[in-house]
Amino acid sequence: MVVALICGGGNGAHVCAGIAASQPGVEARVLTLFADEAERWTKAMACNDFVVTVNSKGKAPTELKAKPTVVSKKAADVMSGVDIIVLMVPAFAHTGYLEELKPLMKPGMVLVGCPGQAGFEFAVRGILGDLARHVSLLSFESLPWACRMLEFGKKSEVLATKGSLTGALQLGDPAPAVDPTAMLQQVLGEAPKLITKGHLLGITLMGTNGYLHPSIMFGFWSHWDGKPLEQSPLFYNGVDRFSAGVLSSVSDEVVAIAKAVMQQRPQVDLNNVTHIVDWYRRCYANDITDPTDLYSCIQTNNAYNGLTHPCEQTSNGRFVPNYRYRYLTEDIPFGLVVMRGIATLAGVATPSMDKVITWAQGCLGKEYLVGDQLTGKDIPATRCPQAYNLPCLDTILGLA
Ligand code: NAI
């Protein structure tokens, strides 16, 4: 029997709890720290089924009816005998879970960030300290599904399941008796096929949202004349050549970071860190009409149809940018600043990232960069290595 603890109370956590509970040989438990979610979820399940509807193209939907054995707000209620912990929440919520779990975590456990998002392993090492070496870490690039919760604590839905999901594994000492990737596969069932390769830092550097969203925001709004617009502009399909150029330069810097790390630590495999244009051609092969270059990949990506810039409406019905949206509030401290922090330790110059961060921190009223140094007062609230006093490449790579 594998005992799986799913952390979170949102779309992903609902679906994961139901899918895991319905797998043979798996006991699913849930820890949700946010507000009164644990209480509400427990109450909702007491006199209702817990249902996950799984849709898949060309097939009739299937309904899974299986409940997690316990949902709690306290780690002490759910941690006994746990083999694998799956964090399935936005990155900004990871710290709370790691702090709550730390006193009850044991050597040999498996800890999964699904998605891990940029800097997952830095948060784990910074918060767990020495214990991090004794835990096997898995970080995945995304959620296994496109999914949504329909009724809290009762019903959720898988809209689509990814064919495969890429991640990376760092084995702890002691390693668990069962391979961690196989253990997670048992918890999630057959699909998606989990593929782990390369170093965890590769997943951090391929946290593409962390530079995609801020670069497009910068490209569009840094030259805005301040006059409210007639409508919210298209975010992706309306991208211009300047914004695509900014994004391409930032992505060049990310690839340069990976190359510099591999040059300095040849045992570290970051070969899956690619330019974002290759990422687009790979991930959206069926959605892009014209894959010629980065600009055309974004402009003609049908998966993005209709998605607009985050805007607020003025009293006379016009539109101005909303800088409080996650494209800056999350993707700067949990994305671009993380990349910038790694660049510092790898000795890579990042003029394009610096332009975007400097503009964004002004919009957010935060301070990350001071000149070209990551010493701003808001660094501790980010996930860059410097926030956790991880001072060199060996510490961020888990080699020290
Ligand atoms: P979600 O938006 O449903 O997560 C909300 C949950 O996060 C809340 O129910 C609560 O448990 C927790 N939370 C919210 N605010 C909190 C706070 N201040 N403190 C502590 N916990 C808090 O997230 P979802 O949809 O489950 O996605 C998880 C991650 O996966 C996100 O990073 C999302 O971008 C990513 N993702 C989601 C996909 C989807 O289809 N839902 C697809 C691909 C990626």
TrEMBL record:
Transmembrane segments: none annotated. SUPFAM superfamilies: 6-phosphogluconate dehydrogenase C-terminal domain-like (SSF48179), NAD(P)-binding Rossmann-fold domains (SSF51735). Residues 198-362 form the Opine dehydrogenase domain. It comes from the Eukaryota. Its EC number is 1.5.1.22. Signal peptide: none annotated. One of its GO terms (molecular function) is strombine dehydrogenase activity. InterPro entries: 6-PGluconate_DH-like_C_sf, 6PGD_dom2, NAD(P)-bd_dom_sf, Opine/Lysopine_DH, Opine_DH. The keyword Oxidoreductase applies. It is an enzyme of class 1 (oxidoreductase). It holds the Pfam family Octopine_DH. The keyword Oxidoreductase applies. Keywords: Oxidoreductase. This is Strombine dehydrogenase. The gene is strdh.
